[in-house]
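[Discussion] Sanity-checking designs against the backbone

I'm trying to build intuition for which residues belong where. Below is a structure token string of 367 positions. I'd appreciate it if someone posts a full sequence so I can compare it with mine line by line.
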């Protein structure tokens, strides 16, 4: 076919062609799930009981999130106008990018961090400014502050951070908000329950702060895709404007009040993770594996050049890990999720067996 007669094909926006893609390795996960930081056990029994009470007719009705948002706002001490329920925190990130970014705006990120920031923001602007964390993975506050410019429109910070487990203090968040009044500062608190410090109480007083929460982790509702965005009513209104009116399914909305009400269950699960975290750190220290402090439900470990081999051998033993070597500054690093006592025990036993089987040496993992 000649050039003159070549059939033209539809092409997407240039930003879509250039944006990175996220490919979650979700195949064959019918094993011990220590790879995606989910609740490894179950949601509250009250959630399951509510699911069993749902009717067939209920499935025919479009979902209405307003009543659930009022309940969530009351639970967290906010106004209903300060809360938007979302299809997981992933959608909250996407909506923030859609609502606030122009093509020439800058997004400020601290790397390594959650890859969906790159994906969603790259759809709207090519100006992503990345500041690498310290060698210890501590938050580089001074360098982040220095990177703010008049074009900075969105700052996305995860605390605790994924994949490192490091935290950004409430005071540091306040400094970022004060330094960039023209920008939305997003505090992604997906792993809040395993840490405890939050910026949520600052939402009514700080005009450019927005906070994200998920119900996938401690609450165990990952399969229902449910998240929350909290912020000043003025900003929430802009985000609500670009959100689908039916973005959260009715089943998720129906069980959410039960999940929130069962605070004893969440406290129990968080205590399981805290105990498991200490056990995992002790076991990895005994094995000679380098780690970093974590305030989340996972630990990042330095395996070195044979990181893929470790993940493959663990899979053959029925345990899934997450290779994080593609993240900036994480070459050779593998992440393991922490859950209930039995699952932590199985994870430790498998690690001990596999590293012995590999004849792995601590020297292999040290930079």
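Best answer:
Here's mine. Compare freely.
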């Amino acid at each position: 076919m000649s050039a003159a007669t070549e059939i033209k094909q539809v092409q997407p926006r240039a930003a879509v062609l250039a944006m990175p893609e996220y490919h979650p390795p979700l195949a064959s996960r019918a094993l011990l799930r220590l790879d995606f930081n989910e609740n490894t056990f179950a949601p509250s029994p009250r959630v399951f009981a509510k699911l069993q009470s749902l009717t067939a007719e209920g499935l025919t009705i479009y979902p209405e999130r307003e009543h659930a948002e009022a309940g969530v706002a009351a639970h967290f001490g906010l106004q209903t106008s300060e809360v938007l329920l979302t299809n997981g925190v992933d959608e909250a990130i996407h909506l923030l990018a859609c609502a606030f970014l122009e093509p020439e705006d800058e997004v400020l990120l601290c790397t390594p961090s959650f890859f969906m920031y790159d994906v969603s923001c790259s759809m709207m602007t090519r100006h992503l400014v990345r500041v690498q964390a310290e060698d210890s993975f501590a938050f580089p506050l001074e360098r982040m502050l220095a990177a703010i410019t008049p074009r900075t429109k969105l700052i996305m910070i995860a605390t605790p951070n994924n994949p490192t487990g490091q935290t950004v203090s409430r005071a540091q968040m306040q400094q970022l908000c004060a330094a960039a009044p023209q920008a939305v500062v997003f505090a992604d608190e997906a792993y809040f329950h395993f840490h405890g410090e939050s910026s949520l109480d600052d939402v009514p007083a700080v005009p450019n702060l927005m906070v994200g929460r998920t119900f996938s982790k401690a609450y165990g509702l990952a399969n229902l895709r449910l998240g929350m965005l909290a912020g000043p009513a003025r900003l929430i209104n802009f985000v609500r404007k670009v959100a689908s009116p039916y973005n959260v399914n009715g089943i998720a909305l129906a069980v959410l009040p039960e999940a929130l009400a069962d605070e004893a269950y969440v406290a129990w699960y968080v205590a399981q993770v805290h105990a498991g975290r200490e056990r995992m750190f002790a076991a990895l220290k005994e094995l000679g594996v380098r780690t970093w402090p974590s305030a989340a439900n996972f630990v990042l470990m330095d395996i070195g050049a044979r990181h893929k081999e470790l993940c493959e051998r663990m899979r053959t033993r029925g345990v899934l890990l997450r290779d994080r070597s593609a993240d900036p500054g994480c070459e050779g690093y593998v992440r393991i999720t922490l859950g209930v006592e039995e699952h932590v025990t199985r994870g430790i036993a498998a690690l001990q067996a596999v590293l012995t089987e590999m004849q792995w040496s601590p020297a292999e993992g040290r930079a």
